[in-house]
Amino acid sequence: NLYVGIDQDRAGFDRFHRTGREIQGELGRLPIRSACADEIWLLNVFGEHYAYNPGMHQPILLASGRTTFPLLTKAYLADLNRVLIPGGKLYIGEDNTPAKYFEDMDYSELGFSKEVYRGEELLNFTSEIGLEEFGHPAIRFSKRESYILVLTKHG
Predict the structure, then answer these.
(1) C-alpha–C-alpha distance, residues 99 and 45, integer Å
(2) Helix count and strand count (H, E) for the chain
(3) Quick one: angle between helices 71-83 and 45-52, nearest 10?
(4) H-assigned helices in 4-117
(5) What is the pTM of this model?
(6) Backbone phi, then psi, for 79, in 5-degree steps?
């Protein structure tokens, strides 16, 4: 198993305890080859992007009444899909961020199936997988609005 931390800001590596290799990069243009990861974890990433650029990440209401992802978010998710192996999992955890709409979206058009964990189910899930062992300050999934999406890449 290899852990690779990616952040667009090198200072991000100093803020959190990490083990493994660290790469400077950004979503949408990940400096990683295709189909090489079985798991990808994003914790409060979309909420942070949304907070800095709310117009760029606002969901789009189509004439049909269906809501779809904004182009920038689609580009991020497409790049994450590219890096995952078939059957690989993308974990998106949001806690106290403005990215609430993520849990309600349809991910099938992007090549993913979706599971959502929140409330007691979320606490059980994070405990089962040992998420609190990472010691990451962003992992505080205790609020009512916290959730983790588990997106599985279609294989």
Answers:
(1) 9
(2) 4, 8
(3) 150
(4) 11-15, 45-52, 71-83
(5) 0.81
(6) -70, -40
* Helix/strand/coil for 38: strand
**Quick one: DSSP state of residue 61?**
E
- pLDDT tens digits for range 21-34: 667 777 788 888 99
Q: Within 10 Å of residue 77's Cβ, how many Cβ atoms?
A: 24
Of 10 and 62, the structure prediction assigns the larger pLDDT to: 62
Q: Are 87 and 153 in contact (CB under 8 A)?
A: yes
Q: Are 126 and 134 in contact (CB under 8 A)?
A: no
CB 47 within 8 A of CB 94: yes
